[in-house]
Amino acid sequence: MPRNSSPDPEPISPALLRDRRIGSEDRGTVLVVGGARTVPGAPALSGTAALRAGAGTLQLAVSERHASTLGVSVPESSVFGLPETGSGAIGGDAVDRLADVLPGAGTVVVGPGLTGAAETEDLLRRLVPAVAPDAHVVLDAFALGALSRAPELAEPLAGRLVLTPNRVEAAFLDGCEEKDVDDLETAVRIAGRYRGVVLLMGVVAEPGGRTWRDGSGHVGLATSGSGDVLAGLTGGFLARGAAADQAACWATHVHAVAGQRLLPRTGSTGLLARELVAEIPRVIAELER
């Protein structure tokens, strides 16, 4: 596909989001699977963002060594300890620990804090068949790399899959070099290839070719952990009954505006991902007026 061959994306604005309001009656369950040995905080960022977006119940599935600590630091969540591989990653055996949990999770966010390409692919191969047949699935971080290695795993998730790559992960999914990533065109190709909604650097693309773009972001959102917040936000909106593209549009705008609100206090280089989480409910409240 030639560069810039897609129609201009529809701007994501407060007016657009108010026209596509997300209901408040559904407050479903979000399960976040991540938190390997060296990255225990990522699922906490995703999970608290999901709660701030309106998820009713949060479950964190993380490395067993971190489960108790995360249970204390995120007291609103139930926590499930997962076995580690020798390298500290979380592999396919972890799915056995979630056999009683997965059927009840309406939204599953996989990837925040996972490590190990091969281990994550093994985890994803066993996890995908185990999720509820009507559950939405959000893939982020190493789970996206695993999907690029095994694209057939997206097939049973068609219509209920959301991908939240950065440009490095988008290059893997699109089979190109990072320098060749064009946010709009790459997002469109990935959405078509994996039959899921893609949220890439403010661009939202759905498999049918429709696209949206939010221009509210800034360089401060490139900070470590910001993507975990975005994935959790998306999961939280899905738990409220949003369609996949609707959740992605809301998440990218709320994430970006939350970052804008922090600029007077943090500047563009001092923003911390955990500070975004505290801004989320205020941004949502303004949009829902």
From TrEMBL:
One record GO biological process: nicotinamide nucleotide metabolic process
Gene Ontology MF, one: kinase activity
Keyword check for Transferase: yes
Binding positions for (6S)-NADPHX per the UniProt entry: 42, 113, 228
Catalytic activity: (6S)-NADPHX + ADP = AMP + phosphate + NADPH + H(+); (6S)-NADHX + ADP = AMP + phosphate + NADH + H(+)
Cofactor: Mg(2+)
Domain YjeF C-terminal: 7-287
Matching Pfam families: Carb_kinase
InterPro entries referenced in this protein's UniProt entry, alphabetically: CARKD, Ribokinase-like
Protein keywords: ATP-binding, Kinase, Lyase, NAD, NADP, Nucleotide-binding, Transferase
Enzyme Commission number(s) of this protein: 4.2.1.136
Residues engaged in binding AMP: 227
UniProt enzyme class: lyase
PANTHER family named in the record: ATP-DEPENDENT (S)-NAD(P)H-HYDRATE DEHYDRATASE, ATP-DEPENDENT (S)-NAD(P)H-HYDRATE DEHYDRATASE FAMILY MEMBER
Subunit structure: Homotetramer.
Role according to the record: Catalyzes the dehydration of the S-form of NAD(P)HX at the expense of ADP, which is converted to AMP. Together with NAD(P)HX epimerase, which catalyzes the epimerization of the S- and R-forms, the enzyme allows the repair of both epimers of NAD(P)HX, a damaged form of NAD(P)H that is a result of enzymatic or heat-dependent hydration.
Similarity remark: Belongs to the NnrD/CARKD family.
Protein name: ADP-dependent (S)-NAD(P)H-hydrate dehydratase
Gene: nnrD
